[in-house]
Amino acid sequence: MTTSARWCPRLGTDPVRALVQRRKPLGGLDWFVMPIVLLLLIGAIVVGRIYPHQYVVRNIWSGVHFASAYGGTAAFAVAGAVGTMYLIANYRLRHKVSLAGPNLGSLERLEHLTLAAVTLGFALLTIGAITGLVEMIKEGRSVPRRR
């Protein structure tokens, strides 16, 4: 397993989770984020085994590309987890169900966190796409064209 396969998915989600949990802890966020982190780790292991030397940082463009692509993926993972929490909290409020488990926070806070994570994810993936295109052009690789 490559070194990047071990730390890249956690590198993206841990700072986001720590930032959210530092101000006002959001109960249950870990329960929703950790399965996504595990899936990202499994995906990184599989891709690392199939293409072991293809994801090596060669220059500044590839470093920015990898960091922004992983960061965007992590931001969307957090947005998906918080969106699921929003749906569960909304269901609890509408049906007046008091289930055992953590307090998931207010709907307004969950919606704001989802919006922030999606906005960050789109920005980072856009940067990743642009730097990937610049790297392809710089290396002289052909860009696929439609006929």
Biggest pleated-sheet summary: none
Coarse morphology: elongated
What number is the mean pLDDT?
A: 79
Counting DSSP E segments of at least 2 residues, the number of strands comes to 0
Q: Roughly how much helix do the residues carry, as a percent range?
A: over 70%
Number of domains: 1
Low-confidence stretches: 1-7
* Cα separation of the termini: 39 Å
Strand content is under 5%
Our count of helices gives 4
Indicate the structural class: mainly alpha
Summarize the helix and strand pattern as letters: HHHH
What is the CA-atom radius of gyration, in angstroms? Answer: 18 Å
List keywords for this structure.
disordered N terminus; elongated; 147 residues; single chain; mainly alpha
Structural features, described:
The structure is a single chain. By secondary structure, the chain is an all-alpha fold. It has one domain. It contains 4 helices and no strands. The chain has helices spanning 3-23, 29-50, 60-95, 107-139. The longest helix has 36 residues, at 60-95. It is elongated. Mean pLDDT is 79; it is low at 1-7.
